TrEMBL record:
Name by which UniProt lists this protein: Serine acetyltransferase
Enzyme Commission identifier(s): 2.3.1.30
Keywords assigned by UniProt, alphabetized: Acyltransferase, Amino-acid biosynthesis, Repeat, Transferase
A GO biological-process term: cysteine biosynthetic process from serine
GO CC list: cytoplasm
Record organism: Mameliella alba
Gene3D superfamilies attached to this UniProt entry: Hexapeptide repeat proteins, serine acetyltransferase, domain 1
Top-rank taxon, per record: Bacteria
Amino acid sequence: MAETRAHLAELDPVWARIRSEAEQAVIDEPLLGGLVHYSILHHPTLDRALSYRISLKLANPEMSEQILREICDEAYGEAPELALSARADIAATYERDPACHRFLQPLLFFKGFQAVQAYRVAHWLWTQGRRDLAYFFQMRSSEVFGIDIHPAARIGKGIMIDHAHSIVIGETAVVGDNVSMLHSVTLGGTGKEEEDRHPKIGDGVLIGAGAKVLGNIRVGDCSRIAAGSVVLKEVPRCSTVAGVPAKVVGEAGCDQPSISMDQLLRGS
């Protein structure tokens, strides 16, 4: 057993850590033993565990868990980058969310992480031309998690969505790597035009709670958007914007705002 664990830790340290934490969780709280076994310890890989969690959450009388699980297994089998992005999302959540104390928690309990993984499968379906099925994933994610991400949106890896209630990300939105956002964020359009109409969020951006970023505008790398702001114009890289409508109020204050999660506006 020790050799097996060591080998797994060498091949996949994220999954090895999740399994180790799961074993301890069963010891600490036996009443969660069934949940932990079915969700984590029963599966040989993170890919299979993700398929199980997504299908379990999104299943309803219109689409069975078994069918959804087959779809997810196909997606993870055809696109290994989905599980790689999930690993980055887990690490990002653990690093940035002070309420996250174990790698286990996003997979079992955090709807922001789970909704992003469901989106990743939906996006894969969209790129395969299976758009009605992608819309089904979007619909169920919205109903179950309270998060509405269009399957055509493009989202990078290392994403952390804290609390994650009432997130809306539109069809032509692009979100870079290592982005953090809090609840009630909208990346929306400004009208009913069908062309490219949603924001482009750079790498390392921090978006505060309730912020609305509207239109086909660029938010520069490593910038900050203050809570409650309405952003209608381009945001320069490494800057902080705040207000309604949002204006530049200073520099970002650090190299990686999305990692530091510092939302205070100093000297402004």
